[in-house]
Amino acid sequence: MTEHAAVVFVFFFLAEYGSIVLMCILTSILFLGGYLLINVLEIFNINIFDIIHFMMIYNPIFVADFDLYWKYYYVYTEYFSNNSIIDGLFYGLSLGLKSSILIFVFIWTRASFPRIRFDQLMSFCWTVLLPILFGYIVLVPCMIYSFAGLSPIHIALL
């Protein structure tokens, strides 16, 4: 006779981690730019070829490689920027890397914090979080009413 008791646990386990993967992929698509490549050099408005040009001017080793610079520039602009297969590869790797980082952080955070029992969670929610919620419900309108007569300059100076 074969034991099938663990099959239910395996399906539950796979569904749980499948939902983690799905949530991380959707998060990377919706909030991290999806498949678009984030280039740190472009954020600071720096081109990689400007760095190579700077190295060639101020370093005598790179002065002899001026033709090599233009060859790399030609290969980059003519081949890599117009090839849909390489673009698709980079886009897929970008989405996969962003999702993998989110999955790593999700599982690391989940493993770092202790697991509490359901009755402890309910007790914490009713005795701690609910009074904090009521405090915020009273605090926020009071702050809005108190600062309503002040201009934004006065609020910034507080």
Describe the protein.
There is one protein chain. The protein has helices at 6-31, 40-43, 48-58, 60-63, 66-80, 84-112, 118-146, 152-157. It has two domains: 6-113, no CATH class; 117-158, no CATH class. Helix 1 crosses helix 6. The protein has eight helices and no strands. It has 158 residues and is mainly α. The longest helix has 29 residues, at 84-112. It starts with 5 loop residues before the first helix and ends with a helix.
Tally of separate domains: 2
Poorly predicted residue ranges: none
Separation of the first and last Cα atoms: 75 Å
The rounded Rg comes to 27 Å
Percent of sequence in beta strands: under 5%
- The run of helices and strands is HHHHHHHH
Helix fraction bin: over 70%
The largest β sheet comes out as: none
Number of helices: 8
**In terms of structural class, how would the helical and strand content be classed?**
mainly alpha
List keywords for this structure.
158 residues; mainly alpha; 2 domains; 8 helices; 78% helix
